[in-house]
Amino acid sequence: MSDESNGNLIKDRLVQLRCHFTWKLLIEDTEVPDLENRVFDEIEFLDTKYKGAIYNLLAYVKHLKGQNKEALQSLKEAEDLIQQEHDNQSELRILVTWGNYAWLYYHMGQLAEAKTYLDKVENTCKKFASPYCYRMECPEMDCEEGWALLKCGGKHYERAKACFEKALEVDPENPEYSAGYAISTYRLDYFNRSTQVSEAFCLQPLKKAIRLNPENAFIKALLAVKLQDVGQEAEGEKYIEEALSSKSSQTYVFRYAGKFYRRKGSVDKALDLLTMALRATPDSVFVHHQIGLCYKTRMIQIKKATNWQPRGQDREEVDRLLPLAICEFEKALKLKPTYEMAYVELADMYAEVGRHREAEDIFQKVSRMRLCNPHLQQEIYYRYGRFQEFQKKSEANAIIYYLKVVRAEEQSITREKCIISLEKLALRKLRKNALDIESLSILGFIYKLKGEMNQALECYEKALRLAADPENSVVYDC
């Protein structure tokens, strides 16, 4: 058989494997450095019994960087750890590592070595009576795939959740599968922020995961933040305190405890915790973003306390906080150039210091990004609309972006905010000019959305009467 035919035969077998090379991990080149940083952080600071899986992912990241020899070393570490960690499960869990070995050797042109690992997979599949030569359908493999997808960003979260669900169908009380499912639902609740009711979906999975993993302080910190989301802050704080009293996964606990206390309004405490996390993980995008939000929160606290007119020392403190916030958001974006919300926060801060052109450029840039998350798109348009309304003083442009959110019909908290903003804008304009057709049309549209049909008809009829006058403009199309 020729080398080309042999290579094609091996490739046909490789695509049947279940491993990082076949899981369709959609990772942009600009995301690779941040992913690698997060993998290293997890290896060093997250206490888990299952580090073999993260070394498998590290090997794949090394391959993406063109570092195949280093990738082989990571696979060796994964192989050793899996054999230590899983005992009776090791023969199944190690199939992912062997699959990665086979793909790596194929990419390195070492076909004989690739075939060796394909043979190892095939022999194990025969041993466990798999109907397939080169793949196993079992909860262990579903779990491995779930962890990989979960680590690779929001566009993979639904698939990650499905993997853990599938594993739990076979073994409902498995601590690892339960933890993976809980974390994936937590991520999805944040990623697809819509209403308070949907945000509560992950509460029960998180509580079950804690029952099965009572020493896992990281999951306790996630539950605390989610309880805070749904208005149960006091209960959440109990979990935060419990997590902080543990030595488990401290760096990760500091991150989420910092987020918890920032949102509670305890900014100094939040900064103390996040600073400790930053010392351990100086390249953490999450931590830089949270610290930036702390400075922003403190600035807003001062402005509210001074009726939005800070003077003297208060003005000096605001002026000190603004560049600190800008610096943190810029660091986050340097580390992860695809972090959409960091762009939005940076644009807001630029607007605060009067750098409107730069803020405008950032909003335009992030608005053009390809987003797989409609709720994130809504948040971007809402924040851009507020920038147009309050900084640029352009009510017309603000209306355009608020309407983009409302017309999308994707139910969310952000959409409700845009409806309120549109109503306020329309009423404000009508107080200035009761014959404003555009504002009457918008107000009619808002009343219609709210189910207030009599008021909607009244607005529409008045707008149509005005539009019939040739001296007036046409009715605004909502």
TrEMBL record:
<dbReference type="Pfam" id="PF13181">
    <property type="entry name" value="TPR_8"/>
</dbReference>
<comment type="similarity">
    <text>Belongs to the IFIT family.</text>
</comment>
<dbReference type="Pfam" id="PF23354">
    <property type="entry name" value="TPR_NUP160_120_M"/>
</dbReference>
<dbReference type="InterPro" id="IPR056535">
    <property type="entry name" value="TPR_NUP160_M"/>
</dbReference>
<dbReference type="GO" id="GO:0005829">
    <property type="term" value="C:cytosol"/>
</dbReference>
<protein>
    <submittedName>
        <fullName>Interferon-induced protein with tetratricopeptide repeats 1-like</fullName>
    </submittedName>
</protein>
<dbReference type="GO" id="GO:0003723">
    <property type="term" value="F:RNA binding"/>
</dbReference>
<feature type="repeat" description="TPR">
    <location>
        <begin position="251"/>
        <end position="284"/>
    </location>
</feature>
<feature type="domain" description="NUP160 middle TPR">
    <location>
        <begin position="345"/>
        <end position="460"/>
    </location>
</feature>
<dbReference type="InterPro" id="IPR011990">
    <property type="entry name" value="TPR-like_helical_dom_sf"/>
</dbReference>
<keyword id="KW-0175">Coiled coil</keyword>
<keyword id="KW-0677">Repeat</keyword>
<dbReference type="GO" id="GO:0051607">
    <property type="term" value="P:defense response to virus"/>
</dbReference>
<dbReference type="InterPro" id="IPR019734">
    <property type="entry name" value="TPR_rpt"/>
</dbReference>
<feature type="repeat" description="TPR">
    <location>
        <begin position="437"/>
        <end position="470"/>
    </location>
</feature>
<feature type="coiled-coil region">
    <location>
        <begin position="61"/>
        <end position="88"/>
    </location>
</feature>
<keyword id="KW-0802">TPR repeat</keyword>
<dbReference type="Pfam" id="PF13424">
    <property type="entry name" value="TPR_12"/>
</dbReference>
